[in-house]
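Thread: Newbie trying to understand structure tokens

Hi all, I'm a second-year student working on a class project, and my supervisor (Dr. K.) asked me to get a predicted structure for one chain before our next meeting. I've only ever worked with sequences, so writing a 3D structure as a token string is new to me. If someone could post the tokens and maybe explain what I'm looking at, I'd be very grateful. Here's the chain:
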Amino acid sequence: MNFQSEQHGKYILRLAKSSDNNGIRSIFESGSFAGGMNIRFLRGAQPLSSFEADGDRAHILVAEDTRENRLIAVGGAVVRTEYLSSVPKKCAYLTGLKVHHDYRGRLSFIQHAYGVMGELVADCAATYTTILDGNTAVIRMLEKRRKNMPEYRYLGHYTTFCLGRGKRLMQVEKNQTEGFEDLMKTHFSRKDLSPCRREYRGFGKKEFYSVRDKDGRIMACCFIGDQSATKHYKMCSYGGVYKLVSHLPTALLGYPRFPKSGEIIRNGVVSYLYVRDNDPALCRRFLLSAAYESGFPMLLWGGFDSEPLCDAVNKLKTVKYGSRLYEVLWNGDTSGKIGGSIGMEAALL
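---
Reply by user tm_fold:
Sure, no problem. This is what the structure looks like when written as tokens:
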């Protein structure tokens, strides 16, 4: 699609360019997650590079206030190669629309922006997105069918778990990846939305952790990455019960340490977690041991509600937050492509 820009009153809708990085960063810095923990998600000094790191390419749209000469909204899609029905396909993840705090509720051309985005991802086999459970206003808006808007078809719930420092319960190997490519073919390929390429920069600078049986076959494994070069979280403030809990020595109890208000959260992210036979005891021992060896004070891992390992991780001492997973269907399409087991990685959301 040869889309350049369109004028809507005093606003211009166009594709982002490298000179927009400062304006996009300002939009991210103006918002935060709502709820008991007020967290701000940031994509660093070069947000366009951060988007591109999560896939093969990124289609990023921005809205500009021409009178004020400032960017006021950003949204788009990251395109990457993922499995669908065990076949590598081009898929698009909608990153969600972020509007500068000063302009919320004032944009009137959202439907048209969706039309542009639908054309930009028309060559993708599937489009999907996630919305935080607490973002109820957006959920109500998007789940209601509207003319000239895509259908947001709810697929299920996705939980992101925050683990603490861990402890050494078993010996784990580091960066011995022999056998992992076989798992990609026999295990991860069976999960829809599992990334086919573990080389995406969005996974961060990562290390591989594993345990093996006496024959050298992988029993459990994962990558743990440092994403701080492309994205990070800032703790803004606490509310409700979390305001009290944040002052407690939670790390001594096995939970993640609650960062101070204003602090950039130092965390690692777990991807491609595999445990043979989904053994919950092995999962617990391996994940806590890998967390300890990684040196991160906090790890993130996410799983869809049908993922068997969620039950095992849920029994650990974690802090968690939930999202709703949707397949986005364009132009009246009713044939969803995503289903069954889901392998979506929290690192790339």
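A couple of things are worth pointing out once you decode it. The chain has a mean pLDDT of 92. Residues 280-294 form the longest helix (15 residues). Feel free to ask follow-ups in this thread.
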